[in-house]
């Protein structure tokens, strides 16, 4: 299992202070193997390992945790990213009912999921209605009817009908008459993807115009599930994926590559045959489950918070005493960078998309960082000693020019003056952003 595998890997990560290419080499190799073994698509694996490496190299190990734990956190965060980052939720119609169309191969778990979802929605106070349009599988309609009865949810089908589109159409009409808030269309599957199946699904989509088309895939089928997701998405333009049977000995590889390969997020998972065995998909939970190390992740998060608090207090003291220097400034810049590209940060602020191209600001930040990094420790703490020849040296070292070094020093002095005004109060939130 992937979790145990990682446990082993991280025992090998040694070294104190900083994660570097050599002390994470073996760990990365094992991450790669473990993912391939879990049946994750090889292209996805390659990209993933590259990203983990990029994040890990140069990371300082936090107080109170070991390099292995820090590495786990990095892998965890990348896993979350790979799984789609945020939690993807169902789209709701502006005016009820919301129509949800299920699709997928035979045996994937569509009918079971239809009932699970109906139960899930009913618990939330909604009024779901089920429509059974599997006209091929013997007893398919009976199956849905039995499930519907067991949860007290209405089911519409036309026994013996050979027209799936018509069943859906009448089912929608009936559901509306019953004032359903959600209509779940359970469709037929085939053993393999074929033209006929796709044509039928396209027809149903055209008629029903669902808010959500959810593709149901079986985690046990590994890479096949990923291919199925891509194919269905190409023809149907699905809205999300449901991964079933994650309770079995499925290696999780399907869940890991679906978003990366098909571009569509997982919205629900099935974790058992019973109708309660449905979960909203939480990328962070699955990442922790795959790693089998949720506690380590929260430990590292706490360590990070502690460091940030220590830092903030220390900086506040320094500002009060007017000792804030370029070294502190560099640290602040690097902290900001840890949060990700500025453009991503601003995406979270409504209206910020109107600010325009942020590439120049990001480039400027990098330049400022390079300039400070080219200074000696003494120069950083006492910028006054930076004379003309030192400026020349710093400009050369940072690939900038003396004019730019001057500009930075002037702006830093201005910032310090501003901080004087703030002193007694707290830090300006993002001092780096005050720079050009
Ligand atoms: P359909 O052909 O896509 O409609 O698939 P069904 O809903 O009929 O399910 C096929 C089989 O998979 C049934 O035996 C279900 O009990 C089983 N099944 C569905 N979802 C899950 C799940 O999340 N976990 C497990 N273990 N079995 C499941
Ligand atoms: Mg079925």
UniProtKB/TrEMBL annotation:
Residues 265-278 form the SRP54-type proteins GTP-binding domain. Its main location: cytoplasm. It comes from the Bacteria. The keyword Membrane does not apply. Residues 300-378 form a coiled coil. Keywords: Coiled coil, Cytoplasm, GTP-binding, Hydrolase, Nucleotide-binding, Ribonucleoprotein, RNA-binding, Signal recognition particle. One of its GO terms (cellular component) is signal recognition particle. It is found in: Cytoplasm. GTP binds at residues 104-111, 186-190, 244-247. It catalyses: GTP + H2O = GDP + phosphate + H(+). Pfam families: SRP54 (PF00448), SRP54_N (PF02881), SRP_SPB (PF02978). GO terms for molecular function: 7S RNA binding; GTP binding; GTPase activity. Composed of three domains: the N-terminal N domain, which is responsible for interactions with the ribosome, the central G domain, which binds GTP, and the C-terminal M domain, which binds the RNA and the signal sequence of the RNC. This is Signal recognition particle protein. It comes from Hypnocyclicus thermotrophus.
